[in-house]
Amino acid sequence: MPPIDGSDGLKAMIEDLVNKNRVMIFSKSACPYCLKAKDLFKSINVEYHAVELDKLDNGPAIQDTLQAMTGQRTVPNTFINGKHLGGYDSTLKAKENKTLEVMLDGESYDYDLVVIGGGSGGLACAKEAVKHGVKVACLDFVKPSPQGTTWGLGGTCVNVGCIPKKLMHQASILGHSIEDAKSYGWELKDEKVKHNWETMKNAIQDHIGSLNWNYRVELRSKEVTYQNSYGEFIDKHKIKCTNKRGKVQEMTSRYFILAMGGRPRYPDIPGCKEYCITSDDLFSLPYAPGKTLCIGASYVSLECAGFLTSLGFDVTVMVRSILLRGFDQQMAEEIGKYMADHGTKFIRPCVPVKIERLEEGQPGRYRVTGKMQDGTEVVDEYNTIVVAVGRDPCTKGIGLDTVGVDVDPKTGFVLASDGEQTSCPNIYAIGDVLKGRPELTPVAIQAGRLLAKRLFTSATLKCDYVNVPTTVFTPLEYGAIGMPEEVAIDKFGQGDIEVYHSHFLPLEWTLPHREENVCYAKLICVKSLKEKVIGLHVLGPNAGEITQGFTIGIKLGATKADFDNAIGIHPTCAEIFTTMNITKNSGVDISVSGC
Ligand code: FAD
Ligand code: NDP
Q: Which PROSITE patterns is this protein grouped with (predicted)?
């Protein structure tokens, strides 16, 4: 660097360097903090220009001028995109709280973060992000179902998923409790117990309405900008937002989060989209469904079939292949058997071929033709047909190709790193739109919260998608964490797996009028890993509560001995896991008849 005399000349020279270089560091070659600062930029692959002041005759004069310009005489003295950043500590702090990225970017945007989708994951992420002082907007827009059903803020879980489903499940259990009460001596005089669909539906929809309202209030009070608009990318930092009335607005943002969730899929057969409903419509159905066919054999279909049967409807499930693909098949079959014993009919293996309307009405009357695996045709009439054959991610037609976000070409699920970053670096994805992740509310929430912390603080913790517990809310609930037995055998070999199992009494006071020995639990252990428990499965009342409780133990690597060492709580269902001593291999009778 040529020596320049006079502070005005030095000032002009410093300004020139600062303006010409994205990262400009005034440094000293032997200074350890200067080395650290340079290493920091190297570690994030950012080029910098450094002037080593100790090698210049006028180095001290430059430091004096820097002090006059910035208030800082010490080195390193760093500028980014023309703005003064400071010394090493400031640089490190900026890296940790992500403002370094913002300075390096050099652009200014309307928002630091725009979340597309105000469901479980999107709301959790937006609310976490604002806590860290950044500007956040959240878009949520519900396209009506083919039957015209629509709903408010909160996404699938609150409006057409977990919450109304659990309430209908509870309503059906309540019906059994009334039966149970009779066996304790309660009597109903004259009046017969009858279920009223409309009353239940209205109560549930009122509850959902209040949740929608609370979400809006919460966003406002936390200063997240909420827009009831549909988002489509224009470029990787700009989105087009279209509201219900077709009004268009553009927003720019440094980061985007894809949290659009999924919607029910329809099989491509005549009459299906016109005449069938899905879980998007069932929970707000204005009339009692009557004789119902549920097509599909996984979570949604079995849960809906379960509560509808328990509420007194004539229900059939059309199963294409197996029940609950991906779950422990022994448990899945036990569920099917229990449901069949309690009135649900099953047609299997069978797929629907066509659906015809015989009568309009609420409910109407429809003829469903199905094809059994052996080619036989089955025909029956139903008032309501619930299609539950899986869900497609809402990733089509929103410009993901324009911004270079890679999706699975077959399914449309978003491909992302283990830190939820997509192939477009400033766009992330969480929840049901992600490929290969469990489609569950707590997973979307956890991923959203942790991602917001990583984006706007120095946090590094990623969402752990392993050992995610889940529960199928069929009439007899099924809770699971870890591997199904067949997966464990595949992975470790039959010889290395020990399965402990037991029937258990669902407690005389819980289900007095039901058969004994339907409730069942098993622990899957790996012998060579000191009997580490790699799968816990339970079929019985409150299986969700039980499984949640044991989740921490499984995540911490609990062994069978740890389970044995835990003292049970009597009389509960969960205590069965502390006293299991019969292996499946032994063939010993596992029936129980008392405590
Ligand atoms: P969602 O909650 O689906 O939210 C996405 C939101 O984005 C929606 O409001 C959508 O309309 C909106 N959106 C889409 N595209 C755009 C766009 N371009 N612009 C603006 N907004 C857009 N999980 C459990 O853990 N337990 C259960 O018991 C359970 N039961 C379920 C029962 C049923 C019947 C169903 C269908 C699902 C159930 N789930 C359950 C799954 C759970 O609901 C989902 O995993 C969860 O809601 C996913 O959250 P998300 O944030 O990814 O998406
Ligand atoms: P899934 O993708 O889990 O299952 C789809 C079901 O439909 C399978 O039984 C499948 O059979 C069957 N199927 C697929 N295509 C056809 C067809 N053309 N004809 C007939 N049957 C067909 O979807 P769900 O809708 O049940 O659930 C979606 C997700 O929502 C779940 O994965 C879950 O994560 C979440 N969820 C969670 C709940 C909970 O936590 N309790 C409750 C409800 C949903 P096959 O096995 O032969 O492929």
A: GLUTAREDOXIN_1, GLUTAREDOXIN_2, PYRIDINE_REDOX_1
DSSP 529: G
**Separation of alpha carbons 19 and 23, rounded Å:** 9
Q: Tell me if 118 CB under 6 Å of ligand 1.
A: yes
User: Where would I find the H helices in 289-436?
Assistant: 299-310, 329-341
Q: Which one-letter amino acid corresponds to residue 302?
A: L
State the distance from the centre of ligand 1 to the C-alpha of 16, rounded, in angstroms. Answer: 53
Ligand 2 centroid to Cα of residue 498, in Å, is 30
Q: What is the per-residue pLDDT across 240-281, written as a single tens digit (0 to 9) for each?
A: 999 999 999 999 999 999 999 999 999 999 999 999 999 999
Quote the strand ranges of 132-228, DSSP E.
Answer: 136-139, 225-227
pLDDT digits (tens, 9 = 90+) for 354-387: 999 999 999 999 999 999 999 999 999 999 999 9
Which amino acids are annotated catalytic?
570
Q: What is the mean pLDDT of the chain?
A: 94
351 lines ligand 2 (CB under 6 A): yes
Backbone dihedral region of 217: left (phi > 0), alpha (psi from -120 to 50 degrees) or beta?
alpha
Say yes or no: CB of residue 139 within 6 Å of ligand 1. yes
Give CA–CA dist 202/493, Å, rounded.
52
157, 259, 414 from 391: Cα distances, Å: 14, 15, 14
Q: Which two tokens stand for residue 377?
A: 């045709």
Return the minimum-mean-pLDDT range out of 6-15, 238-247, 331-340, 456-465.
Answer: 6-15
| Residue 383 CB burial class (10 angstroms; 0-12, 13-18, ≥19) | buried
User: Is-contact 154 118, C-beta < 8 A?
Assistant: yes
Predicted local confidence at residue 3, as pLDDT: 47
- Looking from the CA of residue 322, the nearest atom of ligand 2 is 46
Judge if the beta carbon of residue 119 lies within 6 A of ligand 1.
yes
Distance 481 CA to ligand 2 centre (A): 18
Residue 498 has pLDDT above 60, yes or no: yes
Identify the residue whose C-alpha is closest to ligand 2 atom 3: 298
